[in-house]
């Protein structure tokens, strides 16, 4: 699935650090609802806050800071305004748009049902393909990943995703866009 990195031997993501409004609520969701073990807690010096780590599989972690003075997020700027099926997926440059967790393809639909049974609002299943719409109604050979989205208590957009095929050189075919292609002016 992945090519070899000639520069650095990277073993995945050590952790992705996000910010929450309520660490207890975050533990209840990530450990209680999603089943991720809480593996490390840190009380930051000088009353600055907390930093907690959850094992999200494969040796990787999702971590949260809790800062007593953190400003509230701004939907549509610091994060998408909602789930993709609700419309806009836009978030600001430098923001964290969403976190996608790999799940086994054979358990994908079961996991969606289990989250719904736990009271989590989930998006419809999306069969991502290379069609102009980017989504297929039905599963077929051109679908490269299946996914569905949901949000944590702070509105952080999460995704359960499973790859459905191997990638080839033909999957890297688009010319990268530049800052000059943006429709929104950049600010100094």
UniProtKB/TrEMBL annotation:
One of the Pfam families matching this protein, by short name: Glyoxalase
N-terminal signal peptide: none
Superkingdom to which the source organism belongs: Bacteria
Gene3D superfamilies: 2,3-Dihydroxybiphenyl 1,2-Dioxygenase, domain 1
Domain VOC: 12-163
Protein name as annotated: Glyoxalase
